Amino acid sequence: MAFCLSVGSASAQLFETKAEQVYMIDAETGAVLFSKDADKPVPPASLAKLMTMEVVFNAIKAGRYGLDDTFVVSENAWRKGGAGSGGSTMFAKVKSAIRLEDLMQGVVVQSANDACITIAEGMAGSEENFALQMTERARQLGLQTSVFKNSTGLPAEGQLVTMKELTLLGRHIWQSYPEFYRIYSQRDFTWNKIFQRNRNPLLAMDIGADGMKTGFTEDSGYAIVGSVSRDGRRIFAAMSGMKTDKERAEEARKLLDWGMRSFEKRQLFERGEVVGKASVYGGDKPAIDLRADSPVFVFSPIVNRDRMTAHVIYDGPLSAPIEQGTQVGRLEVRIGDTVSQEQPLFAAESVGVGSLHSRALDAVKEIAVGWLR
C-alpha cells in the first residue's frame, strides 16, 4: 500500500492561458513549472522539425555526416516542399546539390519543407524511412508517445506529439548540441541570394528568447516551442491550441515571462537531512527516518507559496530487514495539482528483524489496519 505524508497546503494553479495544451520546465533541473493537458497527443505541424533536426544533429555528432556534405534536391522534395508547394521553403532548385549546413539553417530558420525532405531522402533513402528513424530516436530519448510519419510535420494520419515531450525534446537539443542550438536564435538566413526571416515571433521580443519553433494545423491550431534565458536561468515551454498567430505570440510571451518572474530557487533540505519517516513491519524499530542523498532544491512560487506542497511517498509499511542507504521512497513536490519534481529517499539507518513478540504485534496491527483500508 502506498503511503503519502504531506507538508504544506495545496491550492489551484493561478496562471491562466488560452492555450489548450501547455508544458513548461526549468532547464537546469527539469522542474515542472506549469502543465495543462500536456500529455494529450496532437498533430505536430512544423514542430515535428525539432525531431528532424535532432536526428541530424545526432548523426553529425556521431561522425556519420559533416557540415560540408551535400544532398541533392529530388523532384519529390521540390514538388512537396519547393516554391510551388505553398508551404515554407528555401526555394531550392530541383537536382541542385546543397551543403548540409545550409539545409540545416533552411530548416531551423526558414522552416523549409524542401530542406527537410532533401535531408530525409539523403540520409535514409526516403522520407518514410527517415520518419521511422525519428520515431525510433524519440523512444531512445524516452519520448514514449510521439509518432512521426514525415520530416516536415505536414498532415499525415497517425502523426502525433505531446507538449510535454516536445518541451523535453527542446531541452535535450539545448543540452546535447549547444553548437547547433544557437541556430534557433538566428534572426534571418540568406541563401542563394534569397533573404528570409525566422518565423519565431519570440525572437523579436525583449524577453531573452533564443528558440525554438512554431507550427499550425487546422486540427490543433497554432503552436510553439519556446525558450528564454535570463539572469542565469533558462526555461523551456511548448504550447498548442491557440486560435491565431497573434494569440500564439502573446500567450507564449506571457507564459515564458511569468515563468521567469514568478519562481525562485529555494533549498528545502540539506544533504542527509531527515525528510520524513516511514512505518516498518516486523522490525526492531517501528519506524525509520528517510533522507535524500543530495540537497533538495525546489522552484517555489514567489507569490502564493501555499501552492507548493511536498509529499513523502513510499510503499508501506516497509518490511524488515532494511539496510541503511536503501532507496525506500521518494519526495514528490507539487505546485497545485502538478508534480513539479521528484527525488529518491533512502533509509537513514538500518532496521533489523524484530523479536517474535514484536512481529506478532505488528501482524495484529496490520490485520486491523487492513480492515480499514
TrEMBL record:
GO molecular function term, any single one: serine-type D-Ala-D-Ala carboxypeptidase activity
Enzyme Commission code(s) on record: 3.4.16.4
Keyword Signal annotated: yes
Pfam families in UniProt: PBP5_C, Peptidase_S11
Active-site residues annotated for this sequence: S46 (acyl-ester intermediate), K49 (proton acceptor), S111
Residues that hold substrate according to the record: K213
Keyword Hydrolase part of the UniProt annotation: yes
Annotated keywords: Carboxypeptidase, Cell shape, Cell wall biogenesis/degradation, Hydrolase, Peptidoglycan synthesis, Protease, Signal
Pathway membership: Cell wall biogenesis; peptidoglycan biosynthesis
Example GO biological process: peptidoglycan biosynthetic process
InterPro entries given in the database record: Beta-lactam/transpept-like, Peniciliin-bd_prot_C_sf, Peptidase_S11, Peptidase_S11_C, Peptidase_S11_C_sf, Peptidase_S11_N
Entry protein name: serine-type D-Ala-D-Ala carboxypeptidase
